[in-house]
Every structure is written in structure tokens, then in C-alpha cells.
Amino acid sequence: MATYEMLWDCSSCGTRQLLGKTHRRCPHCGAPQDPTRRYFPPEGHEVPVEGHVYVGVDWRCAACETPNSRAADFCVNCGNPREGNTSVKLVEDAPALDKPGVVGPRGTAANQADPASSSSRSRRWLIAASALGGLAMVLLLVSIFWTRETAVSIGGHTWRREIDVEQLAPRSSSSWCDSMPSDAYSVSRSREVRSHRQIPDGQDCRTVRSNNGDGTYSTSQRCTTRYRSEPIYDDKCYYTVDRWGHERTERAEGVGTSPAPTWPPVRLGRTGSCLGCEREGSRRETLTLKVRGPKRSWDCEVDPARWLRLLDDASAQVEVRVITGGAVCSTLR
Predict the structure, then answer these.
(1) Staple 223 to which of 48, 92, 126, 205, CB 3.0 to 4.6 Å?
(2) Residue 162 included in any domain
């Protein structure tokens, strides 16, 4: 683990890239170092600290705001005692700059971009992106939940009833061979990828910089295991099996409430459990009201009680979404 100088910029005279541990005061104007303005140097401009002995996080003098070594019992600037003063605020590591400047003598920079400004720009972009995401979410919620009660009338009734017809027949299917049904026949096998397993394949390491709080920082390596995906093969079976399946749908449709809706007649072929035999499957009923509003109409699927209760030309109320103009049919009354 190596130790390097943090950097700081003098806000009084503008001198930049002063050394965090070496320059407790600006060598040009004498202003005290502001520990909150310390930052990590860009890659390639690290200044190592020789013979560094870590004694703890600096404390900041409340009287003159000078940062002092944890080993100092009194402020080196004004003599204020250490008791009652707080530790300096630590700064987090920041991404390396894309175009580091040239470091001049005594830690000054010729063309160094301001890390504080870069961090500030990143924060502004993050805030802007969060604000846009929040606005999009608000608009979505408004379009869903903002409704207005609207007076409507019933313009007509329609209905549709359906009955599925199933047939027992040979059907092609596939599964992993260890779960193939016992009544399968005409079986063929194929070697295929069933899953994957993760195999360790080296490490990915990066250098982590940790602020020591005394004008220096330390570097260490943080590594994570890298994995590769390895396929696991197994036998896949393709076969024929006799199963019930959808063959056709019988439908009946009508307009109005009288005569009442009826189920369509179902004409089955052979019945029983033989190949080619048929049976009735699921049944479905769809009851629809034509709802007329001041500017547009909607088709609302409703329950049987509401379909019978709301007569043609009857007045009713329904919630309409303000943004999209869609009717919330469940509120129709």
C-alpha cells in the first residue's frame, strides 16, 4: 500500500494543486488550507509521501479554520487548544480526469481542469436526469389516475358467447428426456444446452484510493473474481403424445337484451376417450355497452347485472381519464 499527497486549490490567490500534507498554507499568499477542497490528483501526477507516519485524521481549528495534524495539541497558526475541535471532513474518491494538465513546480498546474467543477457538473447532470425521470413518472401517474366524472348515455347492448371444442389427437411435443411422459412415442433425441454454470476465470482488479484525512491518501488493490459461462448439455427428447387440444370455437352473437343471450349449439363428433373424439372445453361470455359521451363514445365490457340494469338511452355517469380520454368502464353507473 502506497501513500500520496492530496491536492488543494487556494481560493484566495488561485494557486492550484498545492500539496495537502506539505502545504498547510498557500506558499504564495499565506492563506490557510481548506481541507474540504482537497481532491485526488489525476492519474500520472501522484506525489508520493516518503516516510509517512499516520497519526489520525486532521482536526480543524474553530478559531482560525487551520487544519492541524492529529498529533498537535495546539493550533500551529493561532495556538487554540485541540479539545473541542472537530475532525476535518473527508472527501470521496473522484473519477480520473480525461485530460489532466501539466503539473508545474511545487504542485501548481498549467492546464489542470478543476476537479471540483467536474464533480459539480456531474452532480448537476445527475440532478437533471433525476428531475426528468421524476417528471415522466408524474405524467404517467397523472395519465392513469387523473379522471373526471362525465355524464353519458347508453347507446346499445351487444353480447357474444363462445364454447371451445377440444379433440384428442396425436400432438408433437418436446421436453428433457428425464421428464418425458411415459405414454410418449415416436421418440427422437438430441444433445442440447440445458443450462450454464459459472466457472472462475481470473480476477478483475482496480486501484482504490482512500482519503487518510491528514492531507494524504493511500492506494490499495480491490479485486473481484471474473467468471466465464460454461454450457451444460443434456438429452432433449422430441416425441408424439395423445392429448386433448383446442380444435375449434363455436360462437353466438347478438344485439340488445331481448331475446336474452344464448349459448351456441355444439355439434360434437365422436365422444369418449378415443383418438379423434371431441368434448366441450371452456365457455366465455362478453357483454358490451355502447357508452356515448359529449364528444366521443366507448365500448365497455361489463358484468351481467350492469348490462341488464342500464337500458338503452339511459343516463349514466363514468370516470374519463383527463389526459388520454379513455373511459374507466368499472366506474360506469
Answers:
(1) 205
(2) yes
